Amino acid sequence: MPEKTTYLIKITGLVQGVGFRPFIYVLAEEFNLTGWVENRNDGVLIKINADEKKALHFIEEIKKQAPLASSIKEIKLQKTDYEKFTDFSIKKSESSSNAVTEVSPDIAVCDACLEDMKSQEHRINYPFTNCTNCGPRFTIIKDLPYDREKTTMAEFEMCDTCKKEYTDIYDRRFHAQPVACNNCGPHYTLYYKCNFYKNINDITDVISYLTEEGKIIAIKGLGGFHLMCDAHNEDAVTDLRKLKNRESKAFAVMCKNSETAKKYAEVSSTEETELNSWQRPIVLLKSTKKLAPSVTNGLANVGIMLPYIPMHYLMFEKLKTDVLVLTSGNLTDEPIITSNEDALKTFEDKADAIITYNRKIHNRTDDSVGIVVNDRFRLLRRSRGFAPSPIITNFNTEGIFAAGSEFVNCFAVGKGNQVLMSQHIGDLKNLETFEFYKESYELYKRLFRFKPKRIVADMHPDYLSSKFAEDLHRKFPETELIKVQHHHAHIVSCMAEHGLNEKVIGIAFDGVGLGDDGNIWGGEFFINNLSEYKQFSHFEYINVAGGDAVSKEPWRSAVSYLYHYFGEMIFEDLPSFTGKIDANRLKNYLQMLKNNFNTYKISSAGRLFDAVSSLLGLVQTAGYHAEAPMRLESIINDDITDFYDFEVTDVISFKKTFAGIINDLRNSVDAAIISTKFHNTLAEVVLQLSKMIKQKTGINKVVLSGGTFQNKYLLSRVENRLSENGFSVFSHEKIPSNDGGIALGQLIIGSEL
Ligand code: ZN
Ligand code: ZN
Ligand code: FE
Predict the structure, then answer these.
(1) What is the span of the domain harbouring residue 123?
(2) Final residue before a domain boundary, out of 90, 115, 146
(3) Is the dihedral of CA 464, 466, 471, 475 positive or negative?
(4) N- to C-terminal Cα distance for the chain?
(5) Any idea which residues carry the catalytic annotation?
(6) Ligand 1 center from residue 135 Cα (angstroms)
(7) pLDDT in tens, 122-149
(8) What pLDDT does residue 98 have?
(9) Cα(23) to centroid(ligand 1), Å
């Protein structure tokens, strides 16, 4: 007898574009249910005829068996008016606004597909095997709704076998848009010397041979090209650095599996889970030093990722090495290359072999990067596997465009209560990167049917993102243009991530952000809510000279701090430091400070770290962004709990801190100890200031943001010291704490004004 009760089930979370409706359909069939399933903007709606017990059981199984890439936030069950259904069906979502959330990020190849590559006749070793649970998504999408014709798979016509799978609701490839096999799908080509290879077994043989020979291969990945070589071969890694225009940043590596990763790094169980997650990010792990030295170039952490496309697995089956350097295929500072033509042109004379495939990458994505701090995963670069999944907020953000920052740019567009953060774009000062920014804005506009009503930008007038925002506003005069303060946006990003809408203690530490008084801020203590902020205190201003050279040459910050606190005499008796700087440059720089020539005031945490790193002789001229703070963190010895003195008046003075460091230097104290004491000092500064603000205002919630909090040791210690003292602490997880997360804050401030 059919049940006379109808239940409405509402599932919220990331449940669109991940094969959720067919999954529900098949499950409903198994349960013998009648009713329907439908996609809505904010989730999935299901109606079924069932008794309560069966409905609850159904929900339990939904939770248990949900597709890998889905993430259920909540399932609500409610009784509703009885409706009669004769079967179970998938309701087609018609509204284009519903399609908005259907853009899934790319998903690492699933175990079942890897199995199919061994057993399905038409997919033996087929390197583009995918199904509803895995495969390319965002990188191949040109427009919505998400159908094969609107992806770069359009030019490949499905063979009969694939078509059968595609149209069979009980098949794992039902409506898997990129479905393909050896007979009908894309294929790889390897160019080596004057030969080219198209057979996948030949290609992996050649890869294995060349890698063993210490050669460098450019290979097309999911979101762009990679450059790769054996991570054990120092000569090959050094060659790779030359190829990329002498880049000095650490390279990421790909390990065969997580067991292999443990050979090269300390891997906690949380870190292992992240490594193996379907997003397959690069996870920064504590290196145990068995790789070629040039891979990490002296840093304590190594970025490790695991294979995520079939080709990676096929390669490792043949390779003699179990770890490859796999770095973005670009020349330093340029965006990662995505087209075959560009790759062939750029790498022709540089790489030993080039591997392409004949499906286009429509949307560039970099490998995402994250780190586990206090057992929670924090994204530092949000791209492949994460973009363009929306960040769900409690605010109406419809029609708001946030332009982002300058150096690590991501922009954001608002659709209802969802914020769509762009994938990591990069440094806009690079011409190609700025082009990428503009293209991506057009893409998001089209993909998400976005029409700007309000435009939010950083108040720094020279940021190219701010200029872009102004141009956009000029083009569409009906839009509003709002400029927001950099550090307020940082803190609000973190608040939005945690759904906070109240007054908080907002602490932003970073490199550069324009302050209200025209100075460069970056060591800021705010009392703020989403729309307003008051500066409670900040790091004492010091004078620096030389424009952009200041962040590139950490010794300038060191000299500035010492001169500011101790005067010129200090340099006569500090040979361990002055011996590392060119005497003439030191003299000239001091002259500039004295005459206030080309100087400006900063309260930046980034420059403070620069100064200490330089004082300890670690980095005088940075080879890449934030090298000095990274090297300072790298020598930490976490057994040490001491810290230096500091003073809080109306500002925070580090005079006593530097006096302590100089004293330690004169007593030949180990740099590791000085570095750790310095980090600990900042944690105490945060604690003391938080206590002062709490005493004055009663606020107990502390929100941490800004690039400096990418420092694992600092973030961990700050969080722990605050929680030990009864504070509720909020820090970034889903979006980066660096400028790559700032667009979210800009957008939320924009929605509140
Ligand atoms: Zn699969
Ligand atoms: Zn086929
Ligand atoms: Fe910043």
Answers:
(1) 104-185
(2) 90
(3) positive
(4) 57
(5) 21, 39
(6) 7
(7) 999 999 999 999 999 999 999 877 889 9
(8) 47
(9) 14
